[in-house]
């Protein structure tokens, strides 16, 4: 096994519609988990530690959503983050672009089968999201730009009681409504910063109470701070 050297976060973050790519050196982080499926690709093996602290290394690492992990510092890698919750098309496209996954790739797998299907296209259910949930998610996206998104509002858009909506949401997407909202707010904040906004402005634009709330959420989801990966002028 190689011994990791110390590197700072230095590279380019590119954001798309529910996906992101980091190209450059990988710096220090803390153990974290997020709703994106993650693919890490490097020319030389990159080290990653799982939830139990066990160390793995490979040139290709696949991580299922909500699986705790921590990458070690590396001089250069490509990190791809894609939403893998239903229907998971973007995740499959990212895998297809990489070509065949090598046999020695490291996979940090979820215990929830719904969060593993992005790695096996044949296993992805053919059924789409319920129409009621589609309407609700569209309403949620509009409301995110305006402020708080109470569960009762989302449930009303779906034509369901809050209790029933909470159940349908978890059953369909594999995660709680509140965690989904935080994930979408982080994406919005990153988009704002990429467009030139400061951390505080981006946090407020995404609906966080303040920059500190955004910082705590970002640290829990990605193990880093905004200033570590968003360079001035980048």
Quick overview of this protein structure:
With 234 residues, the protein is α+β, with helices and mostly antiparallel strands. The chain folds into two domains: 114 residues, Jelly Rolls (Sandwich); 99 residues, Homeodomain-like (Arc Repressor Mutant, subunit A). The chain is 36% helix and 23% strand.
What does this structure look like?
- The protein is 36% helix and 23% strand.
- It is of the alpha+beta class and 234 residues long.
- The chain folds into 2 domains: 10-123, Jelly Rolls (Sandwich), CATH 2.60.120; 131-229, Arc Repressor Mutant, subunit A (Orthogonal Bundle).
- Strands 1, 2, 3, 4, 5, 6 and 7 form a 7-stranded mixed β-sheet that branches.
- Strand 3 (36-49) and strand 4 (55-63) form a beta hairpin.
- Helix 5 crosses helix 7 (211-222).
- The model has no long low-confidence stretch (mean pLDDT 85).
List the helices and strands and how they pair.
Blueprint: E1 10-16, E2 19-26, E3 36-49, E4 55-63, E5 70-71, E6 74-83, H1 89-98, E7 106-108, H2 131-144, H3 151-158, H4 162-173, H5 177-194, H6 199-205, H7 211-222, H8 226-229
Parallel strand pairs: 4-7
Antiparallel strand pairs: 1-2, 2-6, 3-4, 3-5, 3-6
Helix pairs in contact: 2-3, 3-4, 5-6, 5-7
């Amino acid at each position: 096994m190689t011994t990791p050297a110390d590197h700072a976060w230095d590279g380019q973050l590119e954001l798309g519609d529910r996906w992101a790519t980091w190209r450059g050196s990988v710096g220090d982080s803390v153990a974290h988990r997020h709703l994106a499926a993650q693919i890490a690709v490097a020319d030389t093996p990159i080290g990653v530690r799982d939830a139990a602290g066990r160390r793995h290394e490979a040139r290709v690492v696949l991580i299922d959503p909500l699986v705790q992990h921590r990458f070690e510092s590396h001089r250069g890698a490509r990190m791809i983050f894609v939403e893998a919750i239903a229907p998971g098309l973007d995740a499959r496209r990212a895998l297809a672009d990489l070509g065949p996954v090598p046999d020695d790739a490291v996979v940090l797998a979820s215990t929830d089968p719904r969060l593993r299907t992005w790695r096996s296209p044949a296993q992805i259910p053919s059924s789409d999201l319920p129409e009621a949930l589609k309407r609700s998610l569209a309403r949620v996206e509009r409301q995110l730009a305006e402020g708080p998104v109470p569960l009762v509002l989302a449930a009303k858009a779906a034509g369901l009681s809050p209790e029933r909506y909470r159940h349908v949401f978890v059953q369909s997407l594999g995660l709680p409504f509140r965690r989904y909202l935080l994930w979408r707010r982080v994406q919005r904040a990153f988009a704002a910063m990429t467009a030139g906004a400061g951390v505080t402005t981006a946090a407020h634009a995404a609906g966080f109470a303040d920059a500190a709330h955004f910082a705590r959420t970002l640290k829990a989801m990605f193990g880093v701070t905004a200033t570590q990966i968003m360079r001035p002028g980048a």
